[in-house]
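Write out the bound-state structure for iron/sulfur cluster.
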Amino acid sequence: MKIAKISGGASLADPTASAWASVESVTVPLQPVPLDAQPTSYIREAWAGRSYGKTAQASVAAATDGQKLYVRLSWKDDERPNKEFQDAVAAVFPDGGGALGTLGDAEKPVAVWFWENGRSGGNSLTSHGPGVVRKDPGSGLAAAGELAGGSWNVVFGGPLAAARSGRVGVAVWNGSNDERGGLAAVSRDWVSLEQA
Amino acid sequence: MTTTESSEQIYTGAPDLYRKRWEWDAVYWGTHCVDCYPGNCPMRVYVKDGIVWREEQAGTFGTIEPGVPDFNPMGCQKGASWSQSLYGPDRLLYPLKRVGERGEGKWNRVSWDDALSDIADSMIDAIQENGPQTICHEGTPEMATVAPTGKFFSTIGGHGLDLNGSINDFSIGLYETFGKFSPVSSADDWFNSEIVLIWNMNPIFTRIPFYHFIQEARYNGAEVINISPDVNPSHLHADYQVPINGGTDPAFGLSLVQVMMAENIAHWKFLREQTDLGYLVRLDTKRYLRQGDVEGKGREDQMYQWDPASGLKLADRGNLFLRGVEVAMEGVFDVTLADGSTVQVTPACALLRAHLDANFTPEKQQAITGVHPETIRMIARKVAAKKTNIMLGYNASKFYHGDLIERAMALVLAASGNWGRKGTGIRCWAAGMHDGQFIATQKPGPGAANTEIVLSSRDAALAAIKQTDPTMTTEIAVRMLGQLQQKMQGRNLRMGDGESAGSGGTSSPPAFWWYWQAGYDKRWNNKDWGDDSMARTFDEYFEEALSKGWWDGMDRPRPGAEPRVLIECGGNMLRRTRGGKTALLPNLWPKLKMVVTIDFRISQTALYADYVLPAAQHYEKVGFHIPTPHLMNLTFSDKAAEPAGEARNEWDIYNALLEKLAERAAARGLTEYTDTAGSKRRYADLARIYSMDGFLLDEDRLADEQIRDSALAGTLPMGTNLRTLRQKGFVRFIDWGLSPMAVAQASQILPNETHVPFRDHTERGDPFPTYARRAQFYIDHPWFLEAKEELPTHKANPKMGGNYPLGITSGHNRWSIHTMNQANKVILGTHRGEPNVIVNPDDAAARGVKDDDLIRIFNDVSSFTSRAKVAPNVRPGQIISYNGWAGFQYTDWSGENEIEPGMVKWIGFAGGYGHLQHLGTEWQPVPSSRWTRCDFEKATEGER
Amino acid sequence: MSTNGTGTVSTGSGQLAWVFDLNKCIGCQTCSVACKVLWTRESGEEQQWWCSVNTQPGLGTPKGWESMGGGIDVATGKPRAGHQPTREEFGGGWDFNYYEVFYGGTAGKAHLEPQAPRENRWAMNWDEDQGAGEWPNSYYFYLPRICNHCTNPVCVSACPTGALVKQEDGLVLRDEDVCMGDRFCMEACPYKKIYFNYERHVAQQCIGCFPRIEAGVAPACVRQCPGRAVFIGRLSDEDSPVHKLVNEWKVALPMHAEYGTRPNVYYVPPMSPARLKEDMSIDTENPRIPNEYLESLFGPDVHTALGTLKSEMEKVRGGGKSEILSTLIAYHWTELLGPFTQDPAELTPVS
Ligand code: SF4
Ligand code: SF4
Ligand code: SF4
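---
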């Protein structure tokens, strides 16, 4: 997938911006992060009989204005409201060499750009496994999301350096199913990121 | 540096956020100088950036009596969140002027100058029309306001209403018995009890800081018995819960005495000496045998006992001790009178025993009270054998026949020898000891020399009174002096007042105000709601009381002298009065040309005022709590922060008002006016007189002077001053001073011992300040004879409010001090956040009501709506509306007080009989409310 | 700014434990209010009562917490699934229409009331004093609760981020910078003593007043309890009342030990007044709180504990001495505070 180069101050940070219409997007299939990879016995016990990570697929698009990398993630939402947990999404980068399917592990982490509905901005995280995350302070990550026509469109705007690994993955949390932490649907494979 | 930088940060990964929250710049002493009685909890007030951040109990009391638990850490949840009221949403910050109709809730913020000008104009109008006594206030126990308000009304010659008559924390039956109602042990003495009877009290709600002494007494071997119609929270840590039919406590108490006497386990020596039950009563007239009867002359209040060895014996009015003489407690004797005739006499005790045996055996009382006879016998035996303390609140006094309840309680103690030694007694309330608080504001000028003038004139007056009767104790003399002053008020100078002329105001029991000014005459004359044992109409008794002059000087404001200006400073008349909305608003309010509320918070009364003036709250001014024998300490509250907004302390507000009064009067060409006593007062002098030339306006200087004056009066250790209090936060009193309620303790204060009242009576034989000079169980006042209440007896609750199946009761709640804290969000979060009425599940089901449904509670008087709280702790037939919700928390701003007709027991108007004479806070007619009849039904949501 | 003027205090090690004497607790909520005013009055914390007091039997806070699961299966050692209490189940935290009532020109019409839907309304102490049974034998008592700082804290082990740490002296503390707001701890905790801050998106719970402990000052719930009902101390300290009440005399018991987390808050079970028979005579043999109910809270050992208390009470009533009851009396208030007797007001403020 190519990172589209867009110049002239187009508002890429806005998930509904028309500029995104011209950017190539790739749809990737998602699968649940495995139960036995969940980091705590509590989660494994409590979710043993519950399904999660059912979001089937998501689309990824990437663009840059030369300053920042913008990643736009979209997926269909079931739109069932939940007062406690919110829909969330992450762009995953294999920076620490970690596996995508488990969102990294103890030795090899992955880098995560995380956005959650209802909270302003995004969180840049280092993930050492499903839900095993640390916040990276001062990452300068921006994020915005928009629910329209039954689909979420979320744009991250972060350091261009994130694209260096040349790969990106997607993780989606369905809030109405109480999904959070490592209870997510994650893309089966990395999507390549090519500099335009 | 922060709190934690020099503390070791031992917890890794613990958020610094919380270390930062626990930081402050300065610490002050504080307490909550409202009518939180006994209150007085010493707190530390923590200030951050000039704002009170929080408070915490000090916990610095030492041990008083070895082997008795200490007082720490006195406090409660209200006190622990007072700071949240300080800056809370009901806090008043600016002067407000009503726009629109009274009570419409429309306000304009105005300047102090505009507000005071308008108020001053109304005051001048009132003075011009009918004199300064038409400017009125109702007393309030909001301690911080008592001295400034009192001084203000004294300065202008205004009129005040006796607070205890309004709130009815007057234990009338104790008063009838002891000639005083304020016997109060220090709370730590509760620990010394072997039997604790919680009886018409709910200390788990109302004595949060002190309750532990009860449970600790239990761990120390005491047994706790809770006597109440409902399974109230104080049953929790009791050994026995005794459910009693509402208001039938006299029968219960009298039956205990019946058992003690019948089983001969009563304390006969105690009864002979301490009580009048050995006095002889004429069988023909049912009156005492008096000296005049026998000798043809002598004191009207000189009675006789019967010495089995020598016959008739003049009762000693000067000492209770019989020194071995076993005066007869039964038998009928012939006595030859001065006119040569013979009458039969018998000791009052014999009449009592006949009365008890006829009506109050355990079996007979069961029919009245519902209490099992064996329970009576068990309790009677325990009480007779053990040091017993009755935990009495102010609940009994609020029954129509509350005096009968309390007389029965007093009799239980008498028969079991349970007063005047540690672990015994009964409680009510008392204030006093901080005599300097009033001396400093009433003496001719600042300084110790002026204090000496007041002290010596006080001593001289007492000496003069004592000279009239050598048997008189200081306690009795103090009361007589007070009663005398009460009668002379408005006609003469009040002793100790700073100004030589034109000083002092008037005061009266509120009953007259209600009767003449607020439409209660109709309620009290309603036969259906009243006492069916009355031989005559209410008005006939009322007229007789007036015509006999029993209330001379105090029976005001009369018709034709209608109040014109009402200044409520810290009080909340509309919520407090039974019928604030249904009686005061329609009858009294139209007479008032100006209603002013001075307060730190919006109250129900403020919402119907013309002007609302913002006062400093307790953490914003220098002050003291109500000094009480419960604690025996003067506690201090410092100015920890500047008053919020434009709030000012009360001294300052009143002074500014008087300055404005002079200014407006001058503008109208007025220089002086005539007060009730006929003296002239000059407008231009008032502020100067009020503030003692500015002396009272300096908070620190005033507080220092007050403390020093208490030391000079001997109630605080010599050398105590403001600095002492700023360091320690409290100082234990060393003597009682000369205020009636304090002197009434009749016990020496000992530095290393708990306080128990009445030791002077039991250890020295000091007489009681009653007509009979003993604890008086036989009252032969003609009205008492007419009522058949010469002896303690039982009478059923009248059908106050009409003939309805349910009785409503009340009591202080857990969550507020009266309405104070009702708007505190933290406190509102500890309950349902709105008023409720507790109903039994069966009563609820019968009316189709579920928990939290809106219900309408109604009777002949009025109705109110509230949420139902369905709980099995209340008995069928009873509903409970705990007291203290603000009117504005109810759907139509009407609360429980609106269905209470505020009946006063007619006998309260009796007088002309020894101690049955008014003295501030004491003997007077008081309103009742418990077991008002009513019913309820489900109300429609949204119903007004 | 302030500092500890008397030098530093080491808390030492050894599990900290609380003992709440339910025979002294009067349900006054001073502990909960003190805690709230001290720690949770910021926006986002309105609903939080790290220390709460409920009337038992009752649904308590959060509503029906005893049937929300969580904890550890004692037989298998495995954590049990639990329910995450919702905002509604906690309830409370209301706003009020103060302005409308006081200044809105709606006098006599609008009244001060919680601005919250009536349906399913609940609050921290909603069922206060309701209890159970039938008059005249209705019964209830008060139960203060804080985080139990469990020895086997399932909240800690449930958390994927490692935000929760069991400290050397047993306090369970959360690093809020690490907490991601995943709330597995809230599900796992069987006592439901964890709250969620929807504004800051972190979970919060009793911090054991650790900044006070660091300065040698007892926690607010202990130091501010006017009932003198709460002890704190180290279980390993054989002289401490906490050790004696729990380990030696066994009159203080954990609540719901079957939840498997080994709580470190212990309760002296309530002795209640005698029941009344049909004819209203007193049944001295039976307390009004059914023993089975107490057993459901404090386990089968409650009978022994109550038996010990009863015989000690009888001993003292007969003129004897009881070390257990003297300890519970706590003649000197500081006996309740364990090693944390520093007066906070004496910590010297330094600007
Ligand atoms: S409000 Fe009263 S009882 Fe509570 S802490 Fe203050 S003074 Fe004490
Ligand atoms: S402060 Fe003490 S007595 Fe009051 S509720 Fe809390 S534990 Fe109970
Ligand atoms: S009570 Fe709950 S939150 Fe506290 S330590 Fe135990 S499991 Fe954790």
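---
Residues 50 and 131 of chain A are 17 Å apart (CA to CA).
DSSP finds one helix and 13 strands in chain A.
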